C-alpha cells in the first residue's frame, strides 16, 4: 500500500503520518511507502519496512502534481491548503493553492486511466457554510460560504463528488470542525485564537481573545481529526452515494464554556492569562461561521466526536508532556 | 449603456436581444451598444441608434474573453453553455466551456480594476440540485448535482457569489427551470423531450416521450426566461446579500398534466402524435432532477412564474404564428 500525503508537514499531516507508521497496516494491507509532500519538506524518521519519500514543492504546479500521481499511490490524503485569513488577504494565492491544486490532482488521477481509482480523502471545512444558518446545521443545508477559503473548499467538494460519480476517483470529503487545541505557534487562520486561548495560558503565556465570550463554535481535537482521516480512508464509500462530503461530528461550545473547561482542568491562574482585546475584522469573519451542526450523516457511517471540551484540554496537556 | 451577451445566438439569447432592442432602454438608460457573442455568429438586424457588434468565438479562450471585457460593458448576460447531455458525454468540453469560460470572464472583469464593476447576470440551472430531494426544494437546500453540467453550474454560482462579495462584479445568478416550449429543433439536452412532446405534435409531427407520464418537472416558458433576465439585470442586488443565486419560480407539472394541457388547447389528434418509447439513459438522468420548488426567495424580490401550462402552450402557438 503506497500512500500520498499532500500537506504532510502540517499539524494534522504529521499526526496522521505518526499514526500510519504506528499502525503499519491500513485497510488490511501493509503500508510499504509514504510519499510526504508539502511546501516545506516534511521531516520524518522512517521506521523499517516503510519507504518514506519526503519532498517539498508547489501543489498548484501541474507537473509536480502529475509526478506525485505517477507513482500510483493507492491512497491519497489531500490536506494541503492556504488558511482562511491568508486566502481572504491574497485572492490569487487562495484560488491557486486551494482550488487549482485540487483540480490538477483530480485531473492527474483521471489521466492515469481506467485501472487506477485511488481512495482520495480531502479535508474540507465547515467554512463552506455561511450565515444566516439553521440553529443546528443539517446535512442538507446549502453551502453558502462567506470567505474565499470556504468558496474554494466548496468548489473542491463539488469536483470530488463529480469525479467520484464518474468513477475517476474514490473520494471522501470531510468537513473538519475547527481543530482545537493546535500545538505550536499561532497561524494566519482567523480561527487561530480558539487554540491560542487554551494553549498559551497553559504554557504560561498571555493569550489574546479577539471575540466575545458568547461566541459559539464547532470544534474537534487533533486526535479526532486523525481518527476522521483514518475512517475516511478505510470506510465503505458505497454508503455515501453521490454525496461524498460529510460534516464531521464536533463539539458545539461557547468561548465561555471553553474557558470554564480550562479553569476546571488547569485553574484560575491559567485562565487569568486570557486578555480580551476585541478585533472587528476577526469578529466579522467569525460571525459568518457556523456554530452548531446535526452531523448525523457522518455519525451514521461511523465517525464520532470528542466527549467534552475538558477532555480536549486534558489531551492537549498530555500531548505537550509527551512532546517534552 | 453597453451590453455584452454571451450565448447570444441561443434561443434565450435571441429573445433577450429582441426584447432589449424593443425596450431601447434598460435601468433608465439608453442602450447604445450590444456585443452579441456566441460560438456561431449571432444574426441580428440592428435598429437605428444601437451599435450591434456580433462575433463568433470560443468562450473558453482567455484572450477572447479578455477582449470582450475590454470594451467595458455596463451589463453582461452570460447565457453560454454546453447542455447537460453533451457535458455528460464530453467531460473535458463541459468543464472547459461551462466552468473555465466563467472563470476567465470573472478574472477579466476583476483585472479591469476597481472602477469597473458591471452587473453580471448568469444563467444557472436547477440541475445544481440532485436527488434525494425535499418534496418542495427550499432556498436553503444543498446543491448536490448528479451531472457534470450541474456541477459546473454550481461551481459558477460559488464563484459568482465570491467575486460579488469581494466587490469585483455585481452578480446575479438565476437558476432557470427547464424552458418549455423551446422552438426549433431538439437539442442534445437530456431535457429536450419536454419541449418536443408539445412542439412536434403541434407541428403535425410525431414526438417521442422517453419517460413515464407521472414524471414531474419544473418548467418555465421562454417568455418567462426573458423576464427573469430583465429583472435580474435591473433589480437592486443589495437585498441578495452574499447569496447572489436564486431558484427562479416555475410551474411544477407532470408529463400527464402537460399532455392534458396540450389536449385542452389543441385537441386529441395533436396529443395522439406523442409516442411512448422509454429510454433508460434519459430516465436515469431525469430521475436525478428536481421536481418542485418553494422559490419564495425569488418571488420576494420580484421574479414571477407562468400562470398555467395551458398558457405556456398557447404562448408557443402564438409565437410560432408570429414567426410565420
Automatic annotation (TrEMBL), chains A, B:
The keyword NADP applies. Keywords: Carbohydrate metabolism, NADP. GO terms for molecular function: oxidoreductase activity. CDD domains: Gne_like_SDR_e (cd05238). The keyword Transmembrane does not apply. Pfam families: Epimerase. It comes from the Bacteria. This is NAD-dependent epimerase/dehydratase family protein. Residues 3-219 form the NAD-dependent epimerase/dehydratase domain. Transmembrane segments: none annotated.
Amino acid at each position: 500500500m503506497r500512500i500520498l500525503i499532500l500537506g504532510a508537514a502540517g499539524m494534522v499531516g504529521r499526526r496522521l503520518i505518526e499514526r500510519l507508521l504506528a499502525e503499519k497496516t491500513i485497510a488490511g494491507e501493509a503500508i510499504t511507502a509514504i510519499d510526504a509532500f508539502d511546501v516545506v519538506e516534511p521531516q520524518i524518521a522512517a521506521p523499517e519496512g516503510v519507504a518514506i519519500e519526503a519532498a517539498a514543492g508547489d501543489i498548484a504546479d501541474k507537473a509536480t502534481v502529475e509526478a506525485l500521481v505517477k507513482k500510483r499511490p493507492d491512497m491519497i490524503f489531500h490536506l494541503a491548503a492556504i488558511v482562511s485569513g491568508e486566502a481572504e488577504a491574497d485572492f490569487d494565492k487562495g484560488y491557486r493553492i486551494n482550488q487549482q491544486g485540487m483540480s490538477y490532482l483530480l485531473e492527474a488521477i483521471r489521466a492515469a486511466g481506467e485501472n487506477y481509482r485511488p481512495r482520495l480523502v480531502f479535508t474540507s471545512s465547515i467554512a463552506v457554510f455561511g450565515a444566516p444558518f439553521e440553529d443546528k446545521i443539517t446535512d442538507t443545508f446549502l453551502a453558502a460560504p462567506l470567505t474565499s477559503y470556504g468558496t474554494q473548499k466548496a468548489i473542491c467538494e463539488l469536483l470530488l463528488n463529480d469525479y467520484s460519480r464518474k468513477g475517476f476517483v474514490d473520494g471522501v470529503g470531510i468537513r473538519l470542525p475547527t481543530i482545537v487545541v493546535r500545538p505550536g505557534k499561532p497561524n494566519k487562520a482567523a480561527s487561530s485564537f480558539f487554540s491560542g486561548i487554551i494553549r498559551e495560558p497553559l504554557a504560561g503565556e498571555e493569550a489574546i481573545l479577539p471575540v466575545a465570550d458568547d461566541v459559539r463554535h464547532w470544534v474537534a481535537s487533533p486526535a479526532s481529526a486523525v481518527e476522521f482521516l483514518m475512517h475516511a480512508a478505510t470506510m465503505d464509500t458505497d454508503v455515501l452515494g453521490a454525496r461524498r462530503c460529510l460534516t464531521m461530528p464536533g463539539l458545539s461550545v461557547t468561548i465561555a464554556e471553553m474557558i470554564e473547561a480550562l479553569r476546571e482542568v488547569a485553574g484560575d491562574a491559567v485562565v487569568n492569562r486570557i486578555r480580551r482585546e476585541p478585533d472587528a475584522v476577526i469578529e466579522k469573519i467569525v460571525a459568518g461561521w457556523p456554530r452548531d451542526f446535526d452531523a448525523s450523516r457522518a455519525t451514521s457511517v461511523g465517525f464520532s466526536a470528542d466527549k467534552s471540551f475538558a477532555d480536549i484540554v486534558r489531551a492537549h496537556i498530555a500531548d505537550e508532556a509527551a512532546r517534552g
